[in-house]
Each structure stands twice: as C-alpha cells, then as structure tokens.
C-alpha cells in the first residue's frame, strides 16, 4: 500500500500531538508537515518529545499546503480558523479530515458545496471516538419512542466552544427523529438565567466545564415510570485515534463531504 502523506494542522495541540503519534505508528501513513503558529521552524518530533522527525512546523496551513506534497490535511485547531483551513485544502487538491468543533450548519453547507464543485472528498467528524458515534446514533433512535430528552455534556476547562460539537450533532440526530414540541412545564421560569440550559428545537442542552474532565456526555430520556440514560466517556485522547485513522483512509475514496463518522461506518 502507498503511504498516505498527511499534514496536521494544530500538530502541537492536545489532539494534534496524539495524531502525530498515531501517524508515526502506522507504516502506511507519512507525516508530510505540521502547523503551529508558535513553533514555526522547529522540528515537530523534538517539540512534542519524539526525537527528531526531520519535519519542521510551518506557521500556517497555507504555507504547509504550498511547501509539502500531501494527500490529506488533518485539522484539530480552533473554531475560528477551521473553515478557512478546509477551503485552502480543497482548493489545493488536498482532502480534509476535520475534528475541530464549532462549525455552524451554514459553514458545513458552504463547505459541502465547495467539495461538490471540486469533486473533493472531505470528512468532518464532531467526535472520532467510535463509542461516542454509537451514543449519538442510539440517542437518535431512542428519540423516536422517548421524545422527552436532555443532553448533558462535560469537558475539560480548556475547551473554547459550548455546547460541544458532539452535543450539537446529537441534538441534530435527535431532532431528525423526534416530533418537535417544547417539553417541560409550559409555565416554567428561570430564577437564575441559564439554569435550564440552551434551547434546541424544544429540548435542552447543558454544558459542564471542569479541570480533570476529558470528554463525556449523557443523553437522558424520560417517559412515564421509566428513564433511559445513554452515556459515553473519553478517558484520554487515544480514544479518538481509531476514528481518525479510519477517516484518513476513507477520505481518499470520497468525492463529496461527509459530516459525521456514522456515515462511513457499517451500522
Ligand atoms: N472530533 C473529535 O473527535 C475531537 C475534536 N476536538 C476538537 O479539536 C479542536 C482542538 O482541540 P485541542 O487539541 O484540545 O486544542 P488545543 O488548544 O490543545 O490545540 C489546538 C492547536 O491549534 C493551534 N492553532 C490555533 N489556531 C491555529 C491556526 N489559525 N492555524 C494553525 N494552528 C492553529 C494551536 O496553537 P499553535 O498554533 O500555537 O500551536 C494549538 O496547538 C477543538 O475544536 C476540539 O473541540 C477535540 C477532541 C476530539
Ligand atoms: O474539545 C474537546 O476536547 C472535544 N471536542 C469535541 C466536541 O466538541 O465534541 C469532541 C470531544 O467531545 C472532545
């Protein structure tokens, strides 16, 4: 098998470092380049504690795409920069695999259109942990029969966006399967602003941020005399790597954008 050449945007971040490690552990992947604004010019392996890899960080995705010959761009950066990175990659004929959260429904529609125009494959996955993907799919199925639902997501306190990308995708899958109605007491009032969480198509999404947490979510369903809880915990960032590996392999076969790992799994 030919080795797939990969640029990692955000390679010095919590997720990016894990992706670099995963690339180094797979014979059919090659680290073509890595992007870090703060580490530009330094050897990626030396910065992240691998020993020299003889690939230096570039300071921007634009520079990395111009400098390195690559097939795939893996992006774990920020909600503010990810859309531009995807656009640059597709325009350069490089296929994006995106984990960065914070893209709006409109952003995703625009990127879908760009990929369609260019015949480019791309994968945007709000969560690469296979267990989290199953949680989202099962929650969508449960909402058909138990439409009273609340989502509680909990993350580390370095997270920039709320609700998480996973909670948003879960809410979308629930809304696709649940007839829309405003649940809870119609006369309820918040004594403290925000106490009932964010409102999405008739139900609520709550975000917890604490040091010590990684990435966790509970989807709670209630019906007369019964409760169903679907829970997933990522205990470390290695949990996301089988999904990232699968997406890198799969994106080369696609000619359109796929939003959600559930769409490339055999479920
Ligand atoms: N889909 C999934 O399964 C998962 C998604 N995520 C998402 O991934 C994203 C990153 O998370 P995490 O690794 O924890 O975050 P970090 O803050 O640890 O890493 C982000 C990295 O991106 C770099 N960066 C920031 N802006 C730019 C830019 N404009 N161009 C290039 N690099 C940039 C940062 O700084 P510098 O450039 O100085 O190096 C940093 O190294 C978040 O949106 C998070 O929600 C996280 C876990 C799993
Ligand atoms: O920021 C994180 O850490 C995570 N972000 C993703 C999200 O927003 O859902 C995926 C996972 O929850 C970890």
Task: Offer a few descriptive terms.
single chain, 267 residues, alpha/beta, Rossmann fold, Dihydrodipicolinate Reductase, domain 2, seven-stranded parallel beta sheet, five-stranded mixed beta sheet, 8 helices, 32% helix, elongated, binds NADPH dihydro-nicotinamide-adenine-dinucleotide phosphate, binds the ligand O=C(O)C1=N[C@H](C(=O)O)C[C@H](O)C1
Task: List the SSEs and their pairings.
Elements: E1 4-9, H1 14-25, E2 29-35, H2 44-48, E3 57-58, H3 61-67, E4 72-75, H4 82-91, E5 95-98, H5 105-118, E6 122-124, H6 130-142, E7 148-155, H7 165-177, E8 198-200, E9 203-209, E10 215-223, E11 226-234, H8 241-251, E12 257-259
Parallel strand pairs: 1-2, 1-4, 2-3, 4-5, 5-6, 6-12, 7-9
Antiparallel strand pairs: 7-10, 8-9, 10-11
Helix pairs in contact: 4-5, 6-7
The structure holds NADPH dihydro-nicotinamide-adenine-dinucleotide phosphate and the ligand O=C(O)C1=N[C@H](C(=O)O)C[C@H](O)C1.
The ligand O=C(O)C1=N[C@H](C(=O)O)C[C@H](O)C1 binds at residues 101, 126-127, 155, 159, 164-166, 215.
Describe what you observe in this structure:
- The chain is α/β, with parallel strands linked by helices and 267 residues long.
- It folds into two domains: 4-124 and 237-263, Rossmann fold, CATH 3.40.50.720; 130-234, Dihydrodipicolinate Reductase, domain 2, CATH 3.30.360.
- The chain has helices at 14-25, 44-48, 61-67, 82-91, 105-118, 130-142, 165-177, 241-251, and strands spanning 4-9, 29-35, 57-58, 72-75, 95-98, 122-124, 148-155, 198-200, 203-209, 215-223, 226-234, 257-259.
- The strands form two sheets. It has a seven-stranded parallel β-sheet, sandwiched between helices. The chain has a five-stranded mixed β-sheet with strand order 8-9-7-10-11, with helices on one face.
- Strand 8 and strand 9 (203-209) form a beta hairpin.
- Helix 4 (82-91) runs parallel beside helix 5 (105-118) and helix 6 (130-142) runs parallel beside helix 7.
- It is elongated and about 60 Å long.
- The model has no long low-confidence stretch (mean pLDDT 97).
- Bound molecules: NADPH dihydro-nicotinamide-adenine-dinucleotide phosphate and ligand LZUJQKHR.
- The ligand O=C(O)C1=N[C@H](C(=O)O)C[C@H](O)C1 binds next to helix 7.
């Amino acid at each position: 098998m030919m080795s797939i050449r990969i640029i990692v945007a955000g390679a010095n971040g919590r997720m990016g470092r894990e992706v670099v490690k995963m690339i180094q552990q797979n014979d059919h992947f090659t680290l073509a380049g890595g992007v870090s604004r703060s580490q530009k010019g330094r050897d990626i392996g030396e910065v992240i504690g691998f020993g020299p890899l003889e690939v230096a960080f570039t300071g921007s995705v634009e520079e990395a795409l111009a400098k390195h010959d690559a097939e795939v761009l893996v992006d774990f950066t920020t909600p503010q920069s990810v859309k531009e990175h995807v656009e640059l990659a597709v325009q350069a004929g490089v296929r994006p695999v995106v984990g960065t959260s914070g893209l709006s429904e409109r952003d995703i529609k625009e990127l879908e259109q760009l990929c369609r125009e260019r015949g480019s494959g791309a994968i945007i996955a709000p969560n690469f942990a296979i267990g989290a993907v199953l949680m989202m799919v099962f929650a969508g199925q449960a909402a058909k029969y138990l439409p009273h639902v609340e989502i509680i997501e909990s993350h580390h306190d370095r997270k920039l966006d709320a609700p998480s990308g996973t909670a948003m995708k879960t809410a979308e899958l629930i809304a696709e399967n649940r007839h829309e109605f405003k649940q809870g007491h119609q006369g309820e009032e918040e004594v403290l602003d925000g106490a009932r969480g964010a409102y999405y198509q008739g139900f609520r999404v709550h975000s917890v941020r604490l040091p010590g947490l990684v990435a966790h979510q509970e989807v709670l369903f209630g019906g007369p005399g019964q409760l169903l809880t679907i829970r997933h915990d990522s205990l470390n960032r290695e949990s996301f790597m089988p999904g990232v590996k699968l997406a890198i392999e799969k994106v080369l076969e696609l000619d359109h954008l796929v939003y959600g790992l559930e769409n490339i799994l055999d479920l």
